[in-house]
TrEMBL record:
Organism: Pieris brassicae (White butterfly)
Any Gene Ontology CC annotation: extracellular space
Family: Belongs to the serpin family.
Name of this protein: Serpin domain-containing protein
GO molecular function: serine-type endopeptidase inhibitor activity
Source organism, top-level taxon: Eukaryota
Signal peptide: 1-18
Lineage of producing organism: Eukaryota, Metazoa, Ecdysozoa, Arthropoda, Hexapoda
CDD domains noted in UniProt: serpin1K-like
Keywords assigned: Protease inhibitor, Serine protease inhibitor, Signal
Serpin domain: residues covered: 31-392
Short name of any one Pfam family annotated for the protein: Serpin
Amino acid sequence: MRFCSVLLLPIFLKAVESSIMDSKTLSSSIAKFSAKFCNELNKSTSVVASPLSAEYILALVALGCEGPAHEEILQSLGFPEDNAIRSSFSSMSSQLKSIKGITLNVANRVYIQDGGYKLNSALESDAVKVFDAGLKTINFGSGGAAEEINKWVESKTNQRIKDLLTSDSVNSDTRLVLVNALYFKGTWLKPFHKMLTYDRPFYLDESTTVDIPMMNAKEDFFYGESKDLGVQYLKMQYEGEEASMLVVLPEKVDGLNDVIKKLADGYDLLADVETLEETKVDVTIPKFKIETEIDLMEVLPKLGIKTIFDPANSGLTRMLDSDEKLFVSKGVQKAFIEVNEEGAEAAAASGMVMMMRCMPPPVPIFQADRPFLYTILDKQHTTYFVGAFRAH
């Protein structure tokens, strides 16, 4: 089970009082941003994204800008002011390192143009202390800058994300490149057995199906339903029981886009997740692999983040320790997800227990044979990845 994503923001040379958010408030804020982010992605194909990866970079940018740009980022991310960012992401960095049973690598790096350029001293302190970011000088005008950054990204995502930068993404006018890499690998607490995986029909729409590999298991999972949202919920835990995949399955074959829109409009998904109960469920779900490249120059303005891309007045006045005017010239995220039967090494044991025979309660059926939403959560319900599976 592997997930990874990276976010890039190259930043080019242009021709209060403390507020602490508790973990529940922070998770809610991330979930809301994730829903809005997902709602702006391609609605006709399968996608995967890490809004949290985007938040890491945007939060750092927020600490280096002022004016409308600053307000746009704070409002979009759901933070009241800068100290809330500092306390939240410092806590988040510690939280990510402590999750048991999975591999979760979060890496931040700030590339700075060689030749005497430096981050603003306050921003440099935040980058290191809050975001645990590495700082590296580089000559963006050299032919090898993009390749060097790409290799670092590959190393942090287990070679899953390649060629994040094209050779023309940076040049001699580039002053900063901010990169976040997020890599997740987990094995199911209740693994699926490969011998139960076989091709079954998946509904692309009400009248069209395609045969795809579907996994099956009848195990204890966290399950629930929402009549208000019109969905079934299934939460499958990873080893360590501190991270899980939540699958949100619409009742209607063509209901996914409406569900995502309701979430983006403020439906409280996490409140529903809190009510899920562990019970035996007959689960059928696709195994799949998705790679997505997202142009943040298209997505972020739809979320209200526009000014940082304006060459005339970006608001990025607190990034460098110089008077040069900067703007964000490019924003891209690449993400990868693979979902399969993979689990811990299987073992078997036999035994017999004699019990009085009684009629078992009916087992809920969770058959993901139509487009659905999925998210990767930790035990605080912080969203790491979000996506939609549509079988094409």
